[in-house]
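Hi R.,

Here's the input for the adenosine-5'-diphosphate complex you asked about:
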Amino acid sequence: MESNMKPKLEVKNITKTFFSDKGAFQAVEDVSFQIREGEFLVLLGPGRCGKSVLLNIISGLLEQTSGAVYFNGQEIHGVNPEISMVFQKTAVMPFKTVQQNVELGLKFAGMDKKKRAEISEHYINLVGLKGFEKSYPPQLSGGMKQRVGIARAYATNPEVLIMDEPFGQLDAQTRYSMQNEILRISAEEKKTVLFVTNNIEEACSLGDRIVLLSACPARVKEIYDLNYLPKPRDIVSKEFLDIRQKISDNTDLAL
Ligand SMILES: Nc1ncnc2c1ncn2[C@@H]1O[C@H](COP(=O)(O)OP(=O)(O)O)[C@@H](O)[C@H]1O
Ligand SMILES: [Mg+2]
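And here is the predicted structure with adenosine-5'-diphosphate in place:
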């Protein structure tokens, strides 16, 4: 196995069942896949299929019923600081400026002010928010708030970035431009990314590989390798439309 092919993260036979007064509810069933170092892996599945439950297990916020998660070959338990999350509704703090928001994790880690400012400047520029350092989130559009969340996640320099439907709340036009932005950003700052979406076109535009999940409980239906399609991809090319159709034909629910 080539060194750049070694798994950074491995999800092995993960199952999650919630128990309540009403009985047992299975959200994830025997899910296994690997994320290679430097890979942009997309998890594609219908709404409420168990994607966020799975991500919360991978990031250590939730405990699995069975199975294991390995990071650099070691089984992990609990929250891993080397994994950063970007959420659908970015948890940007409205009373802190863009710069303060981006520096939050760095401040928490005890980094001094000068170093924090250098790093936040770099990532604010990277996500295209130069000039908005002193703005407050309520003054920003939805797309710009997501840029703040992305800059904040990158700024802590985690080994793995997890993005949970980060563009799900954006209008179609903004979503499309943010997809292009994330392609540009991930080409500039090579990272291992696990990106979750319920949108097939988004998955096909961004994914080096796509893990297609079933309807709830989430099971792996198929793993598609799209490395034969160089990025940025021409979304009206025959190759693109072919793979998009192939995946669409294999989905449980309309995506
Ligand atoms: N803490 C919980 N307790 C019980 N059920 C939950 C819990 N978290 C999520 N679920 C259920 O698991 C299913 C999958 O949820 P989720 O992973 O959030 O879906 P999505 O794929 O849209 O991210 C849903 O039916 C949801 O209600
Ligand atoms: Mg979700």
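One thing worth noting: The domain at 1-82+161-255 is CATH 3.40.50.300 (Rossmann fold).

Cheers,
M.
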